[in-house]
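Q: My labmate handed me this sequence with no annotations at all. I'd like to see what the chain might look like in three dimensions before we decide whether it's worth expressing. Could you predict it?
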Amino acid sequence: MRPSRSAELADAIVELITDQDLAPGAPLPTEARLTAELQTSRGPLREAIKALQAQGIVEVRHGYGTFVAPASAEALLPWLTFRARSTDTLADLLDLREVLEAGLTRRLASSGVATVTVDALRACVATMAAGAHDSADADCRFHEILCEAAGNNLAKDLIGVFWRAYATAEPSIGVRSEDASALAERHERIVDAVLTGDSDAVEEAVRRHFDEVRDRLGRRA
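A: Here is what I predict for the chain of 221 residues:
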């Protein structure tokens, strides 16, 4: 089946963004210019823009124009949150996070970790240990720091989205069975393993980190 005119235009706009190497925040050509260049009318063009906006590729600032959206995995969140209502999908999400984080943390351990990174990780652990109101944010940030330090910002964005989808679905599998000190200890083991430079120890620490959630899902590895 041939794609609709608006779908064709959406593809053409994405190609334009790519060909012109437009960075996040860069303005797109005006509506008048796009209609001329793409040989279309306003109706299909506006439908295409709406579709790209829903996908998080562009953003419309009324009164200012259309811009390339910030580079983010945010567009995945509604879909992933919907899927994570199933415990099977929640288990899949856990597996995906483990594979992603274990691989990146192994890389970080083998290449060496900067003191500033260790300090940032330990600060997150301290917040978790204190059981402060921002403990959950510190937990999420801990994993984002690992991805950043391993040199993969896309993984950092994905971890943030995974985290929010999981947080929405978590009540369906019951409350955590551990206290603040146990939560902090699991993360501290990851930091200690990274500092040893032992990739196998790092992978084991990351894998054990997910055991508490696996227990609630009935999926202990």
